[in-house]
Amino acid sequence: MFSIFVSAFIIGLLMQYFVIGSLSRPKVKDGVIILKPEKLYSYLGLFGILIAFSLSVVPFTSIADRSTGIEFIPIMSLCFAAIGTYLFAWEARHSIEVHDDKIVSNSFWRKPKSILWVEIDKVNFDDMFLYLKLFNKTAAVRVHMHLPGFKNFLSTMKEKLNSNLYSNALTKVNKAYKKHNVDLSSGF
Fold this sequence. Notes:
By secondary structure, the chain is of the alpha+beta class.
């Protein structure tokens, strides 16, 4: 029971850290705003891979002879390895570039997706996964709320788009921030 409490507390602290980080200033290179995940995602990914490796060694130790439920260790090891690899690669490969005329999303797979500001006809916010999604007729770009500079991205979006497109999404974003005791309304 204590381990569940500690795990929930640590996850809560991490979420608060990422939310506060999203209020920070983004990187700017040659006039292009670049939103990139926190380095902590890489460290968490490496930690997950280390746990996966540690779990994969357990069946070959003397602990395996005394433990029950040993058959779940390979499944747990694969889960930690998959999540760890994803987090590590996401931090290393994902970025959002905000230009004056367009947004470019460099995804996990390094396949850039571009959308022009003037072509955006719909904006949604996914409460569960914390993604702001900007749509045009043929594509969509997702911007995660935990990216450093997300607040600046919202300011840029407000300058570039008609308020009818983003007002519902912005209300949901504000609610998500308020869950972490952060009030965005004062900055807008």
